[in-house]
Amino acid sequence: MAASQAWCCLALLLLLLCDPTRLSRVPMRMQRKGIVAEAMRRLQEVFDIEALPHDVLPHRKPPQFMVDLFNKVADSNGITKAPGLLEGNVVRSLEDRDYFDQFYFYFNISSVGRNEQMLKAELRVFKLNKNHVPQKSFWQHFLKVDVYELLDRRRKPQRRNLISSRLLSLYTEGWEVFNVTQTVSKWVRNSSTNHGFLITTTHLSKTKLESNFVKFAKSRHNMRDSRNAFLVLFTNNDRQKSSSFLPSSTDQIVPCQLNDLFVDFHEIGWAGWIIFPRGYKAYYCKGACLFPLGESLRATNHATVQSIVHTLKLSKDVSTPCCVPDKLSSISIMYFDDNENVVLKNYKDMVATSCGCH
Ligand SMILES: *[C@@H]1O[C@H](CO)[C@@H](O)[C@H](O)[C@H]1NC(C)=O
Ligand SMILES: *[C@@H]1O[C@H](CO)[C@@H](O)[C@H](O)[C@H]1NC(C)=O
Ligand SMILES: *[C@@H]1O[C@H](CO)[C@@H](O)[C@H](O)[C@H]1NC(C)=O
Question: Which of 70, 161, 276, 335 could form a disulfide with 149 if both were Cys (CB 3.0 to 4.6 A apart)?
């Protein structure tokens, strides 16, 4: 859907929700219900949300990494301030869905559309500390960490692919980030190849190699911990087309200008799962485009000629030009999807920043 249509659809819904007197012009309640349902459906399309998540926010916080990312990308009103920061327009954090095996991690990537272009996938795991024991040698200070892709889950012995290896100090604690782009891209193309990750650690003690001596924080029995492993996916979903401007009505004496319009996710009934922001200022364009079109009306040459034709009544069908957004900016929204994953999305052309006669 063209962004301007998206924009009109939002405006329509807001008018319906905010100003019930307008509805009296719609003869039947049924008709209103139909319009609201259609508006909600279009709105879901605009925000690219297939299934509406549960009404209530899960009782947990989004990963700090996602909150920090949101704050880098957008201001508190959701206005995108650094559009180039994300390579694509969608970032998802998926939580580990295996609650039993300490070294095994499984992520359900079904929310990624097959038409989405995978740009980057990061496995983020929190290495837990090992109590300090005095070490004799330099090498005993180190731990080797291997990240594998499992090629089948259930069978033994497990077939696996090494994705990444690194040496870490035994005694530090903190986040480790592994590039798993290639593997996850394959999983997205064919989800039946997703058998999860295995992380092994080996450590040279005094005399022998010890395995899996060090652990990574892990969701156990559904217990939430801010240090639990998660997978971050950066994708591009270019279904958001750039705009072609549609006219809005122009029968006011006030000249064409930007007007306040706050889109409140609470009023739309989406407050339960949108984490940030609470709503955003979309603005709208309203006002007359009468001859002569002053500088501030940012008229196109075409609009200027049209307004002259209209004023001189050179052709009776020609109306005044239309007052429409001529600059739009993007917003960013972070929400829980229906699988309780945290998603950050950039939406193009959602805020009118100036109006003009076109
Ligand atoms: C992944 O999530 C989807 C959507 O919630 C669900 O239908 C599917 O069964 C899940 N897959 C696995 C392997 O758990
Ligand atoms: C991650 O891996 C992919 C594919 O293996 C590679 O193209 C990309 O450059 C890597 N990214 C980083 C940041 O190392
Ligand atoms: C997906 O992967 C499975 C298992 O490797 C394979 O049997 C199947 O043919 C693949 N499907 C497609 C569409 O490539």
Answer: 161
